[in-house]
């Protein structure tokens, strides 16, 4: 079986706009909390970024979990756990 060629990271991915969007969204969230105690911020940010990333990768690979896991740099079992957590395992 030939080796799977992993697509190169595009220059667009290196664009700081992704980081800026996360920063701005988190800042807005914290400001909206006002005097309310913030909690589980790390999990909130990871979940908000992880779900669309998984959706896009599964579409990109036409549902091929092995290929999606390879592209993401994680093992297939970890991918399945993440898909299940986000309700994306069909």
Automatic annotation (TrEMBL):
Listed InterPro entries: Fis_DNA-bd (IPR005412), Homeodomain-like_sf (IPR009057), HTH_Fis (IPR002197), Trans_regulatory_Fis (IPR050207)
GO molecular function: sequence-specific DNA binding
Listed Gene3D superfamilies: Homeodomain-like
Keywords: DNA-binding
The keyword DNA-binding belongs to this UniProt entry's keyword annotation: yes
Pfam family, one: HTH_8
DNA binding HTH domain residues: 48-85
Highest taxon in the source lineage: Bacteria
Any one of the GO BP annotations: regulation of DNA-templated transcription
Family statement: Belongs to the transcriptional regulatory Fis family.
Descriptive protein name: Putative Fis-like DNA-binding protein
Organism of origin: Thiothrix lacustris
